[in-house]
Structure formats: structure tokens, C-alpha cells
Amino acid sequence: MSSSVAKERDVIQSEGHATNGHSKPDVPGLMAQIRQRVKEDTAQQEDSRPAFRPESSEPGKGSKRKAGELLYSEELRYLNSNYSYSLRNNFDALTSHRPGIIGKVIVKVKRKLLSIIWDSLLKEYFEAEKEYQANVVRFLNDVSKYVDERDASNFWELIRKIDVDVTKAIERIERISDEQMGSIRSSERRVFDALDEALASLRGSIEGLTGSVQKHDVGLRELESVASGLEGIIAKLGRDSVPHAEEAGESKSVPDYSYLMLENRFRGSEEAIKNHLKIYPPIFQNATAPILEIGSGRGELLELFGEGGKEAYGVDIDHAMVEAACAKGLRAELGDGIAHLRSLSPNSLGGVIAIQVVEHLTQAQLEELFELVASRVVSGGKAVFETINPQSVMALSSNYFRDPTHVFPLHPDTLSYTMKLAGLPTPKVTKISPVPQEAQLKPLPVESYMTPRWAFVIERLNWNFDRLNDLLYGHQDYFIEVEVP
Questions:
Q1: Helices marked H in 97-122 — which ranges?
Q2: Which one of 52, 318, 340, 476 has the fewest CB atoms closer than 10 angstroms to its CB?
Q3: What are the chain's domains?
């Protein structure tokens, strides 16, 4: 627009030169020429760039425009910087090539003529043009802001719609997944429950059959043991039933086989007892002097000592037991164990062992037994005493009270204290003969579908079951081992 103004001024100046000889200029003609020149200049400076046309009717598809491109375009920045121009005329720029007074007169005429034309015609036109251009630029700014805000609003509205649609789709997928998972879990639980019921029924049947088989097996072993014992007793009675004539006037004691029969009936077979006693010979592996077994019974432990190459003999007060041991070729003597220890010289034994004997003795007999062991066994020799564990209710009810010759159950602490009073060092207590897991209380399983509260209750019940198992089904026996000082 500034170039148009300059051209208009050039036209006026040229016309001024042409009319130096005239008194009045042709104003309408000049205005017509100015308008024509402005139109031509506007047509030449018109932006040749084609108007923006969307390549696709779908937003964002085929269009290379970016968000904010219109508002921050170079063209809009140029319009904002150049839409306003000054309306003050620079009359000093009007000159003449003529020298002297004539040139000055021509310059003054030009300036006067330009002032008249500007004030009467052009000033209002250019002021209106300036106001028009300012309004156009403001409108373009508002349109650019509106378009960009509209695009941003549409964009975020589309984002929100997509987010809502995606959220609904995810919720529907999760709901369907939960329903399917619940149906699968329900079916799985029904199948597992049916399997558990079938397995429980099958397990119960198997356990019942196993219990019956074990019971029959135990009964058969007991019958075999009793029959073997009876055969030995009958054979012995057959040899001793008819006394010789010269012995008719003498009194002869008849052996009592009732305890041997009780041993065969309830304690178990000789093979089972030997398996139980295999832990003791290694304790006496360093013994060099004879080992004494008090209450040697049928001689199972003496056989194990003999198999290990150790010299050992036994003493028992039961005549039938001594006969049964001697019948195997073992060294067994009839007599009281405490009395036998009294008859021995000090440090004459390599060790002493008594299996299930101390519960048959009174407290005074126990004290004397331990004192004699401390004096009759060589220094470094071992003394071992096995008895029933009174801390197990099953051992007391099934083993201790079955034998009528038992005096009193002995707690491990009580027996250890009695030994220390007799001069023996602090003994080592070892519990043996554990009850099979099948016979104990079964813990309840903690299933994965249980709530934390129920899982805690089940765990607490299992903890109580463990304590009850220790009390009811603890180890049935224990033995005390001590090294004589």
C-alpha cells in the first residue's frame, strides 16, 4: 500500500510539471488516473498462491496442516506488522530540476497543489482505507484464533470421545472376562469337589483295607511269636516234667513261664526287637571289658553284641527268660542285677545296659543301681538305660500299663537327676520309637480360595494339632546315655 501512495505522489508531481503553464489543474482526471493506477498495482501485488483447499473430507486425512499453523503463520505476522502507515505528507520531498526563482515557484506550486488535493480528496480516502485494513487484520486475527481454538476443541473432544469409548470397551471386556473366569472357576471347583469326594472315598477304602491288613499281619506275627514261645515252653516242660527217683524227696522250683508268654504276646517278635535294639551296640564300640545287660530277656541284644564281636552277658530274674537265652547259646545268668553288681569288683565292666528295666525298680533300688554302675564300670565306659516315655499318652496307655510288673513311670528329668545324685555326669537323653504319621492327627489343608480369616483359623487349628500330636503321639521310648567318669 505504501508503494501505491508513492506512485500517486509521482503522478501528481509529473502532472504538476505538465501544468506549470496552466492556472487550474484537472482534478477529476487526476483522480481517475490515480484510481486506475491503484487497481493495476493491486492486481500486480495480489498473492499468486492458490487458496487452501482440503484434500480430504475427513479431518486429519490427507491434510498436511498442523495445529496453530494459521494463527502463527508468517503471512498473518506480516499483516499485523504492516497494516498501519502514517498519513502525514512529506512536502520536503517535492523538488524541481529548474534552478533559481522559477524552480522555487514551481516547488511551492507543487506543494500547494498537493496539499489541496490531499486535504480535499485523498486524506479521507486513505483514513477510511487505513481503518478498513485495520478491521480486516483484526478480523483475520479473530478468525485465526477461532479456527485454531475450534480445531483444538474438536481435537480434545475427539480425544475424550475416544477415551470414553475405549474405557467402555475395556469395562465390557473385563466384565466378560470376569464372567468367563467365574464360570471357569465354578466349573473347576465342581470338578475338584467331585474328584476330592471320589479320592476321599477311595482313600478311606484303601486306609480301611490297609488297616485290616496291618491288623491281620500284627495278629499273625503275635500268633507266630506265641506259638514259638509255647513250643519252647512245652519242650522244656517235657524234659523237666518227670523227676528222677533220687530227686523225689528234694524240693525243686518249677520255672514260671507266664512273663515269657506275656513278652511273646505283647512286646513283639524277636526279629522286631532286634531291629529296635540295633542302635545300642555302636555306643559300646570302644568297650574292652565285658558288657553287662541287666534284664537280658530272650537275649536279642546279646545276639547283636555277639555279632559285633563284643563280649557281653546278661542277668535276668526270670527263669524262663534265662532258659530261652541259654537255648540260643548265649551267656545268661539267673539272678538279680543289683545283687550281681554288688558281687563284682570295681572297674570290672566295660559297660552296663538295661532295656525296659528301670521302670520295674523302686526309687531306692534306682539309687543303688546307679551308684553301683558308677563304681563297677571302668572310667570312660558307657551306661545306657531305656524306658517308656511318660510324656506320650499313647506310650503310657498302650505300653506302660499293659505290664503289671511296672512300678512307676519315670520322667527323663527325674531319671537324669537321680543319676547325677549317684555321681554320674549329666546324661544325654534321646527319644526313640516315633509313632507313624498315619496314626497321628492330620493337619487341615489351607486352600487357595479361602479368605485370610479362614486361612488363619485353619493354621491355628493345625498348630494345635501339632501340640496334641506331641502330647498324645510323642516318641514311645527314650534312653539315657552316660559316660562313667
A1: 100-117
A2: 52
A3: 2-41+67-164 (no CATH), 268-435+476-483 (3.40.50.150)
